Amino acid sequence: MLIFLVLLIAFVYNNNLAYLLGFLLSSVFFITILHSFKSLSGLVVQKGQSKPVFAGEAAAFSFHIANPTDAERYQLQVLLEQTENISLVAQGKAVVTLYANTEKRGWHAVDKITLSSTYPLGLFRAWSPIRFDFKVLVYPKPASLESPFPETAASQSERGISNKGADEFYGLQTYQAGDPVRRIHWKSFAKGLGVFSKQYGGGTAADIWLDYEYANGYNTEERLSQLCRWVIDAEQAGIRYGFVLPGLKLQPANGLPHYQRCLEALALF
């Protein structure tokens, strides 16, 4: 509109300076379009890695952006749910981490990201939607309320006499007459969950079984959340735990591979 107005004034008044200004603005207009396009041309974008998260957490997706040319790139924006601003030197590379909110367990996929630029004057925006087959595994959200480990038949038969004289915490069980008062789990009592006592065991503590059938909850998702909480608590306490889902049974173990396998089974159940 400004260029049209200037050229109209130049035509009406036959003013050479107005013509010069109009042509100058027109050249800036068209050259800016070219530079905005070239600010993206030739960039190489590759997907990186992502780590599993729990439902409700933000999943991180990393992308590698390379500039194989001898020209610097300025004012680049990478958009997923939020925008990250970067600049690339000649022959430079950058790693951009974008975050996406998760709500449900299972696979969370990223359909596309958008790479854009408003270089050099901000008058134009050049953009390119880039599609990837990029997904991250989302574990169930752990139950917020603490609950004692289930007293399954297998757990009771394998536990036998617990080593209560050791110092390593391994879980909660229903309070029994004679348990020391100092071992009462007051947080559960304050929440109205009942009276539980904290149990301790040494390195030879008996195995426990985390069974879907014994998980508290009114529906599948709540029971999976409770199982997720038990898996996290058992792993942190260093207890060997077996894991049971309909159609799946993992023998007692602990450590990162067993922990991840249990959580993956919950995510994909």
Kindly estimate the percentage of residues that lie in beta strands according to DSSP. Answer: 25-35%
How is the main sheet built? Answer: 5 strands, mixed
Helix and strand composition category: alpha+beta
Uncertain runs are 159-166
Distance between the termini: 60 Å
Succession of helices and strands? HHEEEEEEEEHEHEEHEEH
- Compute the number of strand runs: 13
Name the shape in a single word: elongated
Can you give the mean pLDDT?
Answer: 85
| Count of folded domains | 2
Output the strand order for the largest sheet: 2-8-7-4-5
Overall radius of gyration: 31 Å
Bin the helical content: 25-40%
Describe the structure.
This protein has 2 domains: 44-139, Immunoglobulins (Immunoglobulin-like), CATH 2.60.40.10; 153-268, no CATH class. The radius of gyration is 31 Å and the shape is elongated. It has a 5-stranded mixed sheet with strand order 2-8-7-4-5. The protein has a 3-stranded antiparallel sheet with strand order 1-3-6, with no helix packed on it. Strands 11-12-13 form a 3-stranded mixed sheet, sandwiched between helices. 23% of the residues are buried. It is built from 6 helices and 13 strands. It is α+β, with helices and mostly antiparallel strands and 269 residues long.
